[in-house]
């Protein structure tokens, strides 16, 4: 028995490695050393997560086999469903996870936009928590601030406006933290070459002042701002918008505010395309692949469709149900709960937004 298990584990490991390598293959892999490329693509992150889930669910997985588990895990990574109902630390762990979460949020709740519904920041945060229960409120608030600017945070927002602002804030969160610090330094006239040495008596130098209304309205010189951002992109390896597109955004103005910069990023078509998680704004309410899949599923249950159509209340019932199948080994019970709660929010109407 021990030999069989060891053989199964070895086979599963080989299959997992094969799936992981196929998932990460791209032409630029030939330009980097092996270990550097694996680190850049976060292959070890997924291997570690897969093994952790294997150990946590070993009783259930033993019925299907380790090889099948690894195959399905990496298939879910390729499909982007591996982030559903996972903890926030995992969904932000890699750029692929972040893009997958953005795509999942769009596909699950695009009917909000199709219905023309306007929601508050707290309501959008509730939708985010349906996919990630511990999603931090602070990130949702920052995304709403991009849309609302100086308006009250309880104002209503369209789905497309919030989604595009949320994409920038969520995907580039670390980059934007550094941008806010640079902006504040430029406002205060601080020398960019100044180095702050930490002391044991105080750690206050690590905390940047919050951007107030006066600083938001005052703005900074766009050319100087870009020089600092260009250096920032060169120094750091975390995700940031393509420098050429950032330069394009800043070349159209002489001065700009911090939130004006964020608004420009969120509305820039090229940055959205470079990130690759969402379609263009005009296509946000359309998802032919999802609609085709839903039609296929509905076609498999003709009796249910017939009974719903014949019902007098048919016009009040949702015509489609979003598909939210995630990786099945860990979040299955969560997926059933969320699907049951969301059945009443999928009615499709014509898009009223431009």
Automatic annotation (TrEMBL):
Main location: cytoplasm
InterPro entries for this protein: CSTPP1 (IPR038968)
Gene Ontology CC: one annotated term: microtubule
Domain of life: Eukaryota
UniProt KW Disulfide bond keyword: no
Coiled-coil region(s): none
Localization per record: Cytoplasm, Cytoskeleton, Microtubule organizing center, Centrosome, Centriolar satellite
Keywords assigned: Cytoplasm, Cytoskeleton, Microtubule, Phosphoprotein
Sequence ranges of Acidic residues compositional bias: 341-354
Region (Disordered): 327-354
PANTHER family per UniProt: CENTRIOLAR SATELLITE-ASSOCIATED TUBULIN POLYGLUTAMYLASE COMPLEX REGULATOR 1, UPF0705 PROTEIN C11ORF49
Family: Belongs to the CSTPP1 family.
Entry function: Regulator of the tubulin polyglutamylase complex (TPGC) that controls cytoskeletal organization, nuclear shape, and cilium disassembly by balancing microtubule and actin assembly. Regulates the assembly and stability of the TPGC and thereby modulates polyglutamylation of the microtubule, which antagonizes MAP4 binding.
Quaternary assembly: Interacts with PCM1. Interacts with TTLL1, TPGS1, TPGS2 and LRRC49; the interactions link CSTPP1 to the complex TPGC. Binds to alpha-tubulin.
UniProt protein name: Centriolar satellite-associated tubulin polyglutamylase complex regulator 1
Species of provenance: Molossus molossus (Pallas' mastiff bat)
